[in-house]
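User: My collaborator sent over this chain with a note saying "see what the structure looks like." That's all I know about it. Can you take a look?
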Amino acid sequence: MAIAIEGHARWDLPTATRIARALEPYDILWLEEIMPPDNVDAYVRLKQATKISICQSERVFTRYNMRAWVEKPAADIIMPDFSWGGGITEGRKICSLADTYFLPITSHDTIGPVALWAAAHLMLHIPNALIMEIVRSYTYAEGWYNDVVTDSIPVKEGHLCLPDKPGLGTRLREDFTSRPNARIEITTEADIKKW
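Assistant: Without extra context I'll predict from the sequence alone. Here is the result:
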């Protein structure tokens, strides 16, 4: 079993360095977002100060912002959120950028089941996919993802596999938009022009 540590961007550089060095004897898979992702150079310093792989960052959006993380280098493992970071097309470009530097990709989860299914398709089609984050309490048994879509993401013996179904392989539950607590927002072309 591999252990990955999530820092939730709560630490400063000296503390993050102490935490990383304390974890070194335990063969940690990665240290994820231990500091806020606002300063790439702070991560370069952290990366130089520890043997633990640095994983970044679901809160860095688009290939243009991710570029510094890859090129400086400030991370060993790139973890985009394919929805927050610009969608599947932009996510594919981030994956290609990382692949150019032989960096593996892991995908971020926690924003919803449709995004998780879309990320699964992308992860199964990139050459540098390492692992896919799945929050088990959201996806299995009584998890809220099951309130939204008809199928749980299939994981068998620790491996992701997608069903032979059209589209993403799942669909929204029929009552999803008709529930009493449903909130529906429709964006029109006029709304977009206002922005």
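A starting point for your reply to your collaborator: The CA atoms of residues 17 and 46 lie 6 Å apart.
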